[in-house]
Amino acid sequence: MYLSYVKKIILITSILLLAFNSQAEDIPNKIANTASDFISNLIPGEGTTEVSIDLRENYKPDFSILGVREIEKNSNNNTFMQFSLSNTEKLNKERYVGNLGMGKRFLSDDSHALTGLNIFLDYDHYGNTRGSIGGEIKNAVMGLTSNYYKKIDNGSVDEEVLDGYDIELTSQIPYLHWADIFYNNYKWNGAEREDLEGSKIGTEMLLTPNLAFEAAYDDKDKKGLEDEYYANIIFVHPPREGATAQDGVSNQIWKKEKDMSDEMIAKVKRNNKIMIEFSGSTVISRAD
Question: Which residues of 178-206 are buried (b: 16+ CB within 10 A; e: fewer)?
Answer without folding.
Answer: bbbbbebebbbbbbebeebbbbbebebbb
